[in-house]
Fold these 2 entries.
Entry 1:
Amino acid sequence: MNTQTINDIAQAEQGTSLWKDAWLRLRKNHLAVFGLVTLVLFIVIALLTPWIAPYSYQAQNLELGASPPSAAHWLGTDIFGRDLMTQIMYGGRISLAVGFVATTVALLIGVTWGAVAGYVGGRADAVMMRLVDILYALPFMIFIVLLTVVFGRNMLLLFLAIGAVEWLTMARIMRGQVQSLRQQEFVEAAISLGLSPATLIRRHLVPNALGPIIVYTTLTIPNVMLLEAFLSFLGLGIQPPQTSWGLLISYGAETMEEYPWLLIFPGLALTLTLFSLNFLGDGLRDALDVRGAKD
Amino acid sequence: MQPIISRFLLVVAAVILLAACSGGETNVASGNRLGILHFGNGSEPQGLDPHVVTGVPENKIIRALFEGLAVKNPYTLEPEPGVAQSWDISEDGRVITFHINPEAKWSNGDPMRASDYVWSWQRLLSPALGGEYAYMLYPLANAQAFHKGEITDFNEVGVKALDDHTLQVTLDERTPYFIQLMDHYSTFAVHPPTIEKFGKATDRYTPWTRVENIVSNGAFRLKKWELNRRIELEKSDTYWDRDKVRLNGIIYYPTENVVSEERMFRVGQLHYTNSVPLGKIPVYKEMPDSPYMQEPYLGTYYYLLNTLVPPTDNLNVRKALSMAVDRDKLNATVLKGTNISAYSITPPDTLGYYPPRLFSYDPERARALLAEAGYPDGKGWPGLELTYNTSEDHRKIAVALQQMWKDVLNIEVTLTNQEWKVYLDSITNMHFQIARRGWIGDYVDPNNFLDLFLTGGGNNNTGFADPRYDEMILKKAPRAVTKEERFAVFHEAETLLMEQMPIIPVYTYTSKHLIHPSVQGLPPNLMDSLNLKYVWLEDIEQATETDD
């Protein structure tokens, strides 16, 4: 047997690795690809905004006021004569950042907490989940208000604060998943092979619970974006002249009969992002479902 | 675009109206038939006790339920007989004798007595009641001392019932606006036995104002109160001037959201709106036979400057900030031309008084002043925080000013919005650098605006303190004999005030309402003061038919 054939065999086996397989399946899902492309596009635009924005986001032109879309202002202007496209681009930076950072925080805490509670079980589980119940019972607004009062107004802190209250549901879902997975033979097999709990959770439990987690993540991101808008409206989030999609929409909604474009375009941007996230989430869930047929 | 939208709006309105008509009679139509006024009243009243509440929505209900000794004529704003059929003023202006109308009755049939007023004013001035408007009666001799608890014998206060129908009032100083105060709800009489039935005189929020308990003396009486839905009033049959009252009833609606209030008006649910959304005003202005009514209003919108903390403790900074604000432009654009630019605290033409104007929009001068203060072209600027209470319209103005300061002075100002009660706290404790403020006149007199800035005044909130100013407002003005003399003192004082620029005046208010064409007898006036006794409803369609 020469070395060539051995390599061939190895390559053939590598070709069916879990992640590559998932990627192949994802690529076949057109909606998911559309979602991925849109999201990447939005993120790239958000990153490049300071260099590519057509106007300054602060400069007002009060005489112009609210004007409908035109050649000079593709998406029109707001009541201060500021270019709406620029506003949406800058708003996107904040909304996307808040969406991803806060969700990542929620994801990290929630998944770890839930997985540990579900895996260890017994008294530790009871204590950990009662803690979650207690936090659930606290009105989260008061919690965030307290955080901002104690630490002052700081954007990163706002992201973290939102993340810190959004992880509870994630923890419950994760725990439920892990509890049901624990009863399965492959986990018992892994335990009997002597895997450490940490490795077991990382290698077997979390990947198997990815489906519901991804779906819930795609639901958390829009939630978080709306929460940011709400907090900003109360004066606890970001302040003018900075803006976000949520704020643009809440301002636009108030004048939707007179200046409909102020609601439509920010709304479109947010909707498009949310749809993309959902499509991508759906696609990822199908693609990563290790229990699905592997053919 | 604008005309297209307005046409679109009209079509929408027409469709909704048609739908509403086919679905049954609108409030306006049934109201016109039955003589019932449907009234958008801003928000749900805090309560109906005239000595306890403080807001504008409460005012509009209380003034229909109760009546003062003298009332403002809605056309001229001059006092005319209310509960008192006449009054005499002594030579030196310090003793006023009210003659109470023998026909004046409470809604339970009891006659009104002079002693009811003595009892009611004692209630308002009692420290235990904590009435926010107790200072309205401070012109009375010894009233302030009684309210502060320095004296405890109410007989020393300058109000006496000579007999059942004669009330004698003694003042500290000549107070030309005292008769006007009799139309402020805090000076109204309440029915002593009713209040005593439900607690002590000084208990707040006892059940005496409930529908089944309340006894009032105005042109209307309370018929029904559905919390957060509607408050119904019906014509009172014990009111002394009942023959003149033409409405059979009034229904007040809490309409906190101006956008939905405007929609209610459009579908014929309201005769009268409390406000109009800014964005809709241009559309309404263009309409033929527009229901939009806009009138000067005795109030000023301004920003407080904290003169005790840097950088606003520097007079040049304060002047620079004020001069960098292009009020005319703000008014023409963001405010849709609905207000009047203001350069001082007192609204122009307050009883014929015009405030001094010491400055204008002047970017060059503003920059020079800022440089003098040590921040040439904004260099070294320590930053500034502007506080406002959460509201769409306040935000718009703040954002526009923020950019004007940036453009003219090249300085950064950050905005902070706070919920109403938090904001009031910040203002009272002076935890701000710049803060939004508005003041609506309680009576038509420059004094009502100028006494805000007395040293340590409860609504001063700027740290402005000048003994010469206090002297002029408290001593010189009340002693002036003629109106001209008095106004000259006010003018001098106001000049002194604005030279120190403890505030940035922005605009003089206008009142804005949508009023259905069937509503008659509701003349516009400076106080936005309603006397619903004079209002009647005319069915426009029927009127045109008879004309033909």
Entry 2:
Amino acid sequence: MRVLAAMSGGVDSAVAAARAVDAGHDVVGVHLALSRMPGTLRTGSRGCCTIEDSRDAWRACDILGIPYYVWDFSERFKEDVVDDFIAEYAAGRTPNPCMRCNERIKFAALLEKAIALGFDAVCTGHYAKVIEDADGNRELHRAADWAKDQSYVLGVLTHEQLRHSMFPLAETPTKAEVRAEAEQRGLSVAKKPDSHDICFIPDGDTRGWLAEQIEMRDGDVVDETGSKVGSHEGANAFTVGQRRGLKLGTPASDGKPRFVLEVRPKENEVVVGPERMLNIDQMRGIKVSWCGLPPSEAAALGDAGTGTSAEFDCMAQVRAHGDPVNAKAHVELTGDGREELVVTLIEPMRGVAPGQTVVIYQGTRVLGQATIDTARSLERPDLVPAAGASSTH
Amino acid sequence: MLTEELSRSGNPSSLHGSGRRARRVVEDAREALAAAARAHPSEVIFTSGGTEADNLGVKGLYWARRDADPNRTKILVPGIEHHAVQDTVEWLERHEGADVVWLPVDASGTISLEALRSELEADAALEQPRIALVTVMWANNEVGTIQPIADVVKLAHAHGVPVHSDAVQAFGSVPVDFAASGLDSMAVSGHKIGGPVGVGALLLGRSVKLTPVLHGGGQERDVRSGTLDTAGIAAFAAAAASAVEHLPQESARIAGLRERLIDGVSRVASEAQLRGPGDPENTGKRLPGNAHFTFPGCEGDSLLFLLDAAGVESSTGSACTAGVPRPSHVLLAMGLAEDTARGAQRFTLGHTSTEADVDALLTALPEAYSRAKQAGMAGHASSIQTAGTR
């Protein structure tokens, strides 16, 4: 196969490319330039867009003996990922930009260009596994190393995207083995630190960065009953589940710490309340996609245009490294033919914010995902907007 | 020449036997280079390459003029210069109080003499004139446009303004006569003429005052410090002598190949637009080895990738330090839209190029162009449907 290895300049993508070469594929390394103004040198754990990363990717390709190119996706990245990130926060949601990047950049813009240029697949250093059933249908599964498993951030891939994806690190037991393999292959990135934060926020200060992008206005902090308990300098800087930085003047009646329960950008209000009210029992997701063939219950809805599917058991996960919890899910078709995913949690989950992605699994298999539109705690149905009411889509 | 000298020792500034021997090699080279560039040997200042020579010429002239008269802080420069000049001028603007006037160029990439004239005349009419220098490249590295250097010098000198020229692309490809040009300083480089990388020279008129950039032993006329690279200098001079000796035949042969290439491209990829001097009566205004096109509907780096895979090496224009292709500032200065500039592809022919090379390009191009068009512009939306787009 002709394989395009997306090379971030990190150890994972270098080893993934090396394994693709070993497997006999015709591999070309490509580094994605995602920033118009690449920084000069990496600071801290920064993982993208620096000159040093581009050089590191280049050196890895030299050692593997494969061609290397830098492709500019900075405009696409700005529109699809950075601007989307800002718009979501401005709407009071908490987005996952890495997921958006996988969805729209690595496995869409890059993949499309790769296919047009004659490649069969895009290979990355993600820890996840693609398997094929007897009919050639592809499924995405968790990686062998659950601690490093990245199937969550790939949960947004569609069957079509999976057909052109290659994740050679799927079966690696631990990250340490990847580093050891890199060392043994003579790749200079063997000891390079992992990247953790959002690549386009230079010093990891998401709140400070957002404050420069979104107009912040002073407003009220109210408790779960609606009484004012403090003030803030901009609602958009807050995230559901947040405890620090609330600076509340009025103590809670029970004297216990309070957490952000909800952000209301339109009213410029932040709602706080006791920890137990962060427990979410049910969420409704929009922008649903299936990672491979849809579950039979959803498929049975067919092209009805409207209706509700049978319920099916699954596990729900709302963060890249969050714990999955047992859940039941069903699909509802809205009048315009869109799917909405309703996930009812058997054990409640803490701090779920609209804008986050819920990925649902059966065993190790990723079924699909949706963007959380509303999340409700049965304790405060009055405060949580009715399903769909706050939706802006 | 290079390997022979590399096996010898001796600092050309030392006074002992090995030093004197090395000095003689350097001085022979200085004379050979001076003869090739039609300059006096004392006008040759060896540097580490074209970039250093441009920095020395531009910064050196700027500082010397400003020191002599604090009002002289204005630099006239076209927007199509190589980064060695453009970035130097921008640095002077940011750090040394320079006031930069970017002179317009026409669609072929030729500097507007009218704009230059009016800037010079308006300045001369001031009680305290402000222009420090004019800097104009001899020939453009991307689109190959040869600039009217003699006219530029004539206009500037009429007002006593010195002129620097980056002749890195022109030297060895077209006749370059430093003495006849009247230039105050001119940059040339070794690797563009078949010499080694890492050596170049600034040709500096004998009476021109220049403030040094590198300080130290003052080895080169007290204007440039640093131990001289005897082997590199000897090889550079030998390459220069050979390039200039064969220039009339080689430039005619290469220009012939270039015409074959341009005709061929317009036949196999008729949408491609030739950039730089185009019409037949203007071919003398283009470097013989340069052919530059924009290919509508595709991104230059896709085309580069596909041609590279087919064994044809071309270039998109410029890339930043991280290797990111950028729409060329030269094309933008020529008035092209950014999307058009992104489809740029430059084909350079040199003395090893043959008809077979040109034909290999013409064979690979149609398929490559059609695929590159399918790949489209990476800046445009992907048609792959996902959750967020449905």
